[in-house]
Amino acid sequence: MKTKQVIYIAGAGALAGGLAFVGSRLALREGVRQKIVASPMYAKARLAADAAALVGFDAGLPTADALASAMVPLFSTASPYEAAQDIQQFGRESRFWPPAYKTSSLPYGLEMALITVAVAVAGRKQGQIEAA
Q1: DSSP letters of 20-88?
Q2: Is residue 41 within 8 Å of 61, Cβ to Cβ?
Q3: Which pTM value belongs to this model?
Q4: What confidence tens digit (pLDDT) does each residue in 8-41 have?
């Protein structure tokens, strides 16, 4: 085989591997988003956040899409469980918290309660969500 052919084959293999990796991350992200959307806990937290917004408080609770996208970055090997632990430890300062939702006008205790609900939903295994 000529050097040029080897380079083409290696390049095609690298491209296929990269596309497979990104595809798997997109599938994982969609799975996390579906868990969040299907959770009654998240629905209640979202309802509370929307009610707080009606009286002028910004709860800063991210949408399911934004939270899933932040917890499963495409070009990372971090798992959603690792992201959930990081968010539980650092709250809104976590690198896995969506940037558009870094601020809130709620008291710290209530804010952390909402964060805990959002993270608990996203970080649970499928069998644990139905039990919640």
Answers
A1: HHHHHHHHHHHHHHHHHHH-HHHHHHHHHHHHHHHTT----PPPHHHHHHHHS-TT----HHHHHHHHH
A2: no
A3: 0.74
A4: 899 999 999 989 999 999 999 999 999 989 888 8
pLDDT of residue 54 exceeding 80, the answer is yes
Phi and psi, residue 121, nearest 5°: -70, -50
Which pLDDT score, from 0 to 100, does residue 126 have? 45
**pLDDT number for residue 45:** 82
Q: DSSP label at 94?
A: S
* CA gap 47, 33 in Å, rounded: 17
Cβ atoms 67, 35 nearer than 8 A: no
CA–CA distance, 65 with 116 (Å, rounded to integer): 17
